[in-house]
Amino acid sequence: PGGAPWWTRAVVYQVYPRSFQDTDGDGIGDLPGITRRLDHLGRLGVDVVWLSPVYRSPQADNGYDISDYEDVDPLFGSLADLDALVAGLHERGIKLVMDLVVNHTSDEHPWFRESATGPDSPRRDWYWWRPARPGMEPGTPGAEPTNWRSFFGGSAWAFDAASREYYLHLFDPRQPDLNWENPEVREAVYAMMRRWLDRGVDGFRMDVINLISKAVAPDGSLPDGEVHWGAYGDGGPHYTDGPRVHEYLAEMHREVVAPYLAQGREVLTVGETPGVTVEHGVRYTDPARREVDMVFQFEHMGVDHGVTRYDPRPWRLADLKATLGRWQAGLAERGWNALYWDNHDQPRVVSRFGDDSPEHRVASAKALAVLLHLHRGTPYLYQGEELGMTNAHFTRIEQYQDVESLGYYRELTGRTGGPRLRTDDEMLAVLAHASRDHARTPVQWDATPAAGFTTGQPWLEVNPNHTEINAGAAWADEDSVLHLYRRLVALRHEIPVVALGDFRMLLPDHDAIYAFTRALDAPSAADGGETEGERGRRRDELLVLVNVSGSRQDVPGEVVSGWEDADVLVATHGPTDGIAPDDAGPGSGVGHRVLRPWEAVVLRRR
Ligand code: TEU
């Protein structure tokens, strides 16, 4: 364990600045607001903050459409405010990781403005410009260069009437894709990254970084083909993990990150890689390849929907185990997982895989926290997840603001010229389950009218349940979800087997119990006296038992036999007698364990 990198023992907290804490009354969170809340992060014990974009942006996609990578948008404050935040975090031993969004810029970025002046612009090939499909009238339906679709609905090509050419945007038309084939683009990105590292930033979360290499044919053309994310099993040409992506990431590591590591700086790089496969996940995170430290994979985010999240389906625990288990096994020898449930793009996990009813919300939030944080990898904790915050309960389309949610609402209800595939009510039900806005309601700090988030009109409605679900109440309640997260963070810091132990899934087909072990041969504490042989290697083992259901579950005997004398490391349902059964009383020797609804237990034996 001594040799393991620091981030194997770290927990990262994601701040979505727009919804974290407002201090100037405009109803939008800002940088001074984060600085004001640093004690909350300090008490949680997190090691790193990942800050979603605060750069200059027209806010077409809440800051993931950047018009100046090296200035702070006045919405959030100034560069001085950012320097103050970095200083405040570093004082508390917390690192700051910035969001690096370089698959695309905003259409208001000077680079794109220049590129769009015409085919002769020196920056024309900084982006993907293509003529209409051969034989088709430019600007007419079906004349787009390929049939690629945007992640936000509609075609991935926008028509420019002035040049009668199209430009590529895998996301919103206001987010034109940069052309990474062009070394000038890569150099400009690397120079910007170095300037942020020189400013004291400690690394990057790299937005959709596995999309930057497009599937260009040898003759430079872009192929047709129904395009989804690879992980959804289409097999066809898709955007993810393109032909040169590993070359680019190795170059970025060599050109930007390696020199700082050589100076002794601790720089964290995490790739957001939608649709990534385990095979590519190993290639991205194998330390010997020097690409990135870890990646966010998306397979487990797909167990409850079809190709897109707007096609929700019932989910099975066995599927969740199969995918999380596949990633644990796939990266066991080489590579490293970023573990998450929530982020600013996902609905709240307690409403999605837990049960956000008053009876089970706290217990299920705790159960899911234990489940995730005891896996092997670096856990990411999204703002409000530590409070057990739930999805919003919007009932009208006007309450939603997410560009992706609104894009699919309009497209699937036939408002963009295509067929009407869903009624308005059907789409409202889909959004109630899947919209990204659920993660973006303001953090609930206290029970006052706007939950202590703002003194003004919040940009997105505060969840009315903030009167019961808020940080003030949680800190005052030893049994809160928040205090459990604080203990889980401490466990990862203190007990090597939590961060580094080998993972073994149990009960793969059980549809309510999620069970696994972690094991590490830790060198026994040499207390002098012992001979070399006696010192030997001592095995430190955990058994994690989580009831992912609202009903009592019997843990099969073979799972718990041999753990009768184990210590109880975590027990979400208060004091527990370890393995002895609920009914036979302690010491009865009958080795089975009943798990109460949403109960999680972690046993340790050495
Ligand atoms: O996310 C890309 C991404 O995978 C999701 O937005 C995806 O479109 C959605 O979860 C599937 O329904 C990154 C950012 O995290 C996201 O906020 C941005 O909107 C997107 O890239 C474009 O920058």
From TrEMBL:
It comes from the Bacteria. Residues 14-440 form the Glycosyl hydrolase family 13 catalytic domain. It holds the Pfam family Alpha-amylase. InterPro entries: GH (IPR017853), GH13_cat_dom (IPR006047), Glyco_hydro_b (IPR013780), O16G_dom_2 (IPR045857). Belongs to the glycosyl hydrolase 13 family. The keyword Ribonucleoprotein does not apply. The keyword Protein biosynthesis does not apply. GO terms for molecular function: alpha-amylase activity. Keywords: Glycosidase, Hydrolase. GO terms for biological process: oligosaccharide catabolic process. This is Alpha-glucosidase.
